[in-house]
Write a structure and sequence with these properties.
elongated; Tetracycline Repressor, domain 2; 0% strand; mainly alpha; 234 residues
């Protein structure tokens, strides 16, 4: 299952991701077999998909903390007892979502296409474009993780912080390799990897602004790539 997600997720620059909530629910079912009581995937995955989609929708409209199990039951069409067959608390549900987002980002961004990793410029462009397309494919998941982070319990907040740090580290490794090889300037700011992440988050957090301007994902991605490379290339 994990190998399938990895293979499907790693797309060349400019390609769309063929990932769905159902794909991630299959992964959640495998990852949390000790928590989810329903073992049959043909039954569990569709219901888990209804739960996750309802939870993300309710959270992105009114906040995860404000969402009650009664709200989730009504929105998902499952009884409260039915919900407890998949998680024992809202915190467990939160952790399921966060861990899946974090793991997906790590698996996708750590496996660039063959050949691109040898060229820091190509690799950096691929990282930026791939991250943007990944968030586009799973917009509600990433919006949830960003918007709700400040309200997470300490342990779950740490998961979100570690995920952001991981992404920053991947960018830093490529930039440092470019500096060492002479492709990037030696005076490239050490802050550049940290500054890339807000540019990526801007796309999925403020979508309405770019929709009004008629800005496509392709244009936004290319603009961010060029901006970042201007800051480090000779």
């Amino acid at each position: 299952m994990e190998d399938t997600l990895q293979r499907d997720a790693v797309a060349p620059q400019g390609a769309a991701f063929d990932l769905t909530t159902e794909d991630l629910c299959k992964s959640i079912l495998a990852r949390h077999a000790d928590t989810i009581c329903v073992r049959n995937p043909t039954i569990a995955v569709p219901k888990l998909k209804r739960i996750i989609e309802a939870a993300l929708d309710l959270s992105n409209r009114g906040g995860f903390q404000a969402m009650s199990l009664r709200d989730l039951s009504r929105a998902s069409g499952l009884s409260t007892g039915g919900l407890y067959a998949y998680f024992d608390s809202k915190t467990t549900l939160l952790k399921m979502i966060l861990l899946e987002v974090t793991d997906l980002v790590e698996r996708v961004l750590s496996k660039p296409p063959v050949g691109s990793a040898s060229d820091p410029v190509t690799h950096l462009r691929w990282l930026i474009d791939t991250h943007l397309r990944l968030t586009e494919a799973l917009l509600p998941w990433f919006t949830f993780a960003f918007m709700e982070a400040k309200n997470f319990p300490p342990a779950e907040r740490r998961i979100a912080v570690d995920s952001e740090y991981l992404t920053e580290t991947l960018f830093a490794e490529v930039i440092n390799r470019g500096i060492d090889s002479g492709v990037f300037r030696k005076d490239t700011s050490a802050l550049l990897p940290a500054l890339i992440k807000p540019l990526l988050q801007e796309w999925y957090v403020k979508r309405a602004k770019y929709r009004r301007r008629g800005t496509s994902l392709e244009v936004y991605s290319r603009t961010v790539q060029d901006l970042v490379l201007t800051a480090c290339t000779k």
